[in-house]
Design brief:
Radius of gyration: 13 Å
Order of helices and strands: EHEHEHEE
Number of helices: 3
Distance between the termini: 20 Å
Largest sheet: 5 strands, mixed
Strand content: 25-35%
Helix content: 10-25%
C-alpha cells in the first residue's frame, strides 16, 4: 500500500517503534516521513498505537483528517503477548465508528503487527 512518491505521515512514534519498518517505509515512498504537525494531504498514515495510548476512535478520526480520498491508515499495534497489545476486537469496534474498515492484518516486524484501514467503498464515491 506504500508506493514511490507517497506522502506518509507518522503518528504515535516512540522509542519502542520498529526502526527497520520505518526505514522500509521511507525506502518505498522515497521520502522522509512527515510528522503529526504536517497539514497538507497525505497518502498513508502510519499510526503507532498501544493499549494505554487513549481512545482509539479519537486517534483514528484525527488520523484521517488530512488523508487523501484513496488513502490508507496502517494501524501498528504490538503483537499479542507484547506490552501494549491491542485486542483485534477493539480495532474491529473502533474502525467503523471512525468511518474506516479493516481490510487485512500483517506481521510488521518482531514486535508489531499492522492493520490496514480504508474508507468503505460506498464512502469513496
Amino acid at each position: 500500500g506504500i508506493t514511490a512518491g507517497a506522502v506518509v505521515q507518522e503518528i504515535g512514534y516512540d522509542d519502542d517503534c520498529d526502526d527497520a519498518l520505518r526505514d522500509a517505509v521511507v525506502a518505498l515512498s522515497g521520502s522522509a516521513l512527515v510528522d503529526e504537525d504536517y497539514d497538507d494531504v497525505v497518502d498513508v498514515v502510519l499510526l503507532w498505537w498501544r493499549e494505554d495510548d487513549g481512545d482509539l476512535v479519537d486517534a483514528l478520526v484525527d488520523s484521517i483528517s488530512i488523508l487523501a480520498d484513496q488513502g490508507v491508515v496502517w494501524l501498528m499495534t504490538p503483537k499479542p503477548g507484547r506490552p501494549g497489545h491491542v485486542e483485534a476486537a477493539d480495532i474491529a469496534d473502533a474502525a467503523p465508528t471512525a468511518g474506516l474498515q479493516a481490510t487485512s492484518t500483517i506481521s510488521a516486524g518482531r514486535d508489531w503487527q499492522g492493520t490496514r484501514l480504508v474508507a468503505p467503498k460506498a464512502a469513496r464515491r
